[in-house]
Amino acid sequence: MCRNFPETNDRVLLFEHLADPDGRNIPLIVRMKLDLIGARIHLADWRALDPSCCDTLIAAPVNGPRAIAEYLDALAGMLARQGRGRVQKIPPAELEGTCWLARAEPVTVVAFRKRAGLVSEWLSLTRFERFLLCHAARKDDLDLCRSFASELSGFKCQT
After folding, report:
1. What is residue 100's predicted lDDT score, i.e. its pLDDT?
2. According to the model, what pLDDT value does residue 74 have?
3. pLDDT for res 112
4. What domain range includes position 122?
5. CB atoms within 10 A of CB 1
6. What is the pLDDT of residue 142?
7. pLDDT of 6 over the 50 cut
8. DSSP letter at 86?
């Protein structure tokens, strides 16, 4: 999980913001980070957080063991201050067994990406771009895939 990935500024994607302008749903960038740190929160937990806490969880890095520990501690503190209880621990995403952390693009993702009409180089995608592509493939949602692809530089539409 400590592989180096080219990264962009962590943010809520425009299509997410347009669909949820009040930020009531857990953004995909936070979902990815929760997977990386091995944590799960409920939607009610997210909605109980102050907007500044949400902004922190969106922007804070999880790019190494120390950053992961700090993120988990910050999340636990935020939830405790809101009386939401403990963070539910799950196995964290790891290089082996997590498609978006794999060294090679999974065959099922290649097929899905081609059906979506997108071209990309797996090794040049950011971790978040890989997460999004695998998320859309798992849901078999071509429209979702095209939505985020239009916002991110790692993807080009086939002509």
Report:
1. 92
2. 96
3. 95
4. 99-157
5. 19
6. 93
7. no
8. P
Structure tokens at 153: 């530089």
Contact 148, 16 (CB under 8 A): no
Inside any domain, residue 115: yes
3-state secondary structure of 124: helix
Nearest alpha carbon to residue 47 among 57, 33, 36 = 57
Nearest 5 degrees, angle CA 97-CA 54-CA 30? 15
Using one digit for the tens of pLDDT, what is the confidence trace for 40-80?
999 999 999 999 999 999 999 998 899 999 999 999 999 99
Q: Are residues 137 and 72 part of one domain?
A: no
Q: Are residues 73 and 55 in the same domain?
A: yes
User: Is residue 57 domain-resident?
Assistant: yes
Amino acid sitting at position 21? P
| Beta strands, E only, 20-155 | 39-40, 88-89, 118-119
Distance CA(118)–CA(33), nearest Å, equals: 25
Distance CA 149, CA 1 (A): 24
Q: Is 46 a domain residue?
A: yes
From 89, 119, 145, the end of a domain falls on 89
d(CA 42, CA 32): 14
108 falls in which pLDDT band (50, 70, 90)? very high
Domain count for the chain: 2
Are residues 66 and 107 located together in one domain of the fold?
no
Alpha carbon 90 to chain centroid distance? 16
